[in-house]
Specification:
By secondary structure, the protein is mainly alpha-helical. It contains five helices and no strands.
Length: about 170
């Protein structure tokens, strides 16, 4: 019977890759902790499975009930697609909740491991979930297009560029 053993180089590469992956996972959880704290939540929630997902959806969507979309992964054939779409929309909403533009949202979607720590460790404040104004004629200091609060002396919305209507 012939046994094959891994060479020393293969073992070193295996442990090095595992060490890097564990480091990235730890760094991601630290970033999640910081994002939760910036949004006014307790940072330790990032370490609790399922509760961290509910909190993530609460920060990005404004309501934790959307975390039930996680259960769609159990639907055969289409579950992962539905969850992927909800997650992509969540990254866009998270970027907007921190006052970032669409380009940053694309970065969050495609290069999460880079853009999420940028969001966590930057000086950007959590502005909250933006909601559409029901009556666009009565804006009361909010953008009539995206619902962003406007400064009194602003002529345009800093979020979407819509001119302020007086």
């Amino acid at each position: 019977m012939k046994y094959t053993y891994l060479s020393a180089t293969t073992k070193i590469a295996f442990w090095l890759i595992n060490f890097i992956l564990i480091g990235l996972i730890i760094f991601f959880f630290i970033s999640l902790w910081k994002v939760f704290e910036k949004a006014g939540k307790k940072g330790w929630i990032a370490l609790i499975p399922l509760y961290n997902i509910c909190t993530f959806f609460e920060i990005s969507w404004g309501n934790g009930i959307y975390s039930l979309a996680f259960l769609t992964v159990f639907i055969p054939k289409i579950g992962y697609t539905i969850f992927a779409i909800v997650l992509i929309v969540s990254w866009v909403k998270l970027a907007k909740a921190f006052g970032k533009d669409g380009a940053f949202a694309v970065g969050l979607i495609l290069l999460t491991i880079i853009f999420f720590p940028i969001l966590a460790f930057s000086d950007d404040a959590y502005v909250g979930v933006l909601k559409k104004i029901e009556n666009k004629n009565s804006t009361n200091g909010y953008c009539r297009n995206c619902g962003t609060p406007l400064a009194e002396d602003a002529e345009f919305c800093h979020n979407c560029g819509t001119p302020k209507q007086n």
